[in-house]
Design goal:
Elements: E1 6-13, H1 21-32, E2 41-43, H2 54-57, H3 60-64, H4 71-83, E3 86-94, E4 102-109, E5 115-120, E6 140-143, E7 146-150, H5 159-167, E8 172-176, H6 184-198, E9 201-205, E10 208-211, E11 214-217, E12 221-223, E13 229-232, E14 239-246, H7 248-256
Parallel strand pairs: 1-2, 2-3, 7-8, 8-9
Antiparallel strand pairs: 1-14, 3-4, 4-5, 6-7, 9-12, 10-11, 12-13
């Protein structure tokens, strides 16, 4: 990241074609083609390569899932290298050892196309339990000196995830999502709240448009450590939104209101009165 402690990040809001990985990769490349080297990190939505509508995908999702490395991750790595940007993307990952175990995973690539890590969704939405195994770790990944965490979609409902990532040094938490219409208010409330609660940046990246009978609400957004939304996408169009983040704002907000100095996790464990 630049020495000025600034980073330019983007949310790539897109309509996905169910089950058509090649079409979705082509669409992602097209949306990223206008960046002209101005971005540091871009993020694609949850399960962008397959689409998310699990009711329609059903058992086909197991056939669409890939091990890592695989064809999709190789293409993503090449795209990151060609565009000279770090890239985060949601895919269906097949377990390397057990064929019928799959994960709702976000993969992270460096500017050079190197796979830096992965995050397997740890808190599954009820329907997702029919398909996915839950992950078991909350990693923080270093991208050129920037500390990044990931929470996928429904996980913005769990403040503990964001606080844990912040305590582990995350400066930005990316939230690749598939939020349908009728639930956008949850995204609008929670994304700035998670950012302000932990005095970090949060980048929510949603699907938009139709997948079968489901319409996604868009409104991808970027919130700063004050809880202010500094960029937001429309509710009906594919687009890339970006923002230059002043990383010093994290330190400034924590000096102004030192939340973590007063943090008392020993008091927060559920227990009898």
């Amino acid at each position: 990241m630049p020495e000025s402690r600034r980073a330019t990040v983007a949310a790539v809001q897109m309509t996905c074609q169910l089950g058509d990985k090649r079409a979705n990769l082509k669409k992602a490349a097209l949306l990223l083609s206008a960046t002209d080297g101005q971005l540091d990190i871009a993020c694609l939505p949850e399960l962008f390569s397959t689409g998310y509508n699990l009711d329609v995908l059903d058992e086909a999702l197991f056939d669409l899932a890939e091990t890592i490395p695989g064809e999709t991750t190789e293409t993503l790595g090449r795209l990151a290298r060609e565009r000279n940007l770090a890239l985060i993307a949601g895919i269906a990952e097949r377990d390397e050892q057990v064929e019928d175990i799959i994960y709702d995973t976000a993969v992270i690539f460096s500017r050079s196309g190197e796979l830096l890590g992965r995050y397997r969704k740890t808190h599954l939405y009820p329907l997702e339990n029919r398909f996915f195994r839950a992950g078991g770790t909350l990693p923080v990944i270093d991208i050129d000196g920037l500390r990044v965490g990931i929470a996928i979609c429904f996980e913005h409902a769990f403040p503990h995830i964001f606080t844990t990532l912040a305590l582990r040094g995350a400066q930005i938490v990316f939230n690749p999502s598939a939020v349908p219409r009728g639930y956008g208010y949850l995204q609008d409330v929670r994304i700035p709240a998670r950012a302000q609660d932990n005095q970090i940046f949060v980048v929510a990246v949603n699907h938009v448009g139709d997948e079968g009978q489901v319409t996604y609400c868009g409104r991808s957004q970027i919130a700063d450590p004050r809880g202010e939304v500094v960029a937001v996408a429309s509710d009906g169009a594919e687009e890339l939104i970006s923002a230059e983040l002043d990383l010093d704002l994290i330190r400034n907000q924590r000096r102004q209101e030192p939340i973590f100095r007063g943090f008392r996790p020993d008091l927060y464990e559920p227990r009898s009165p």
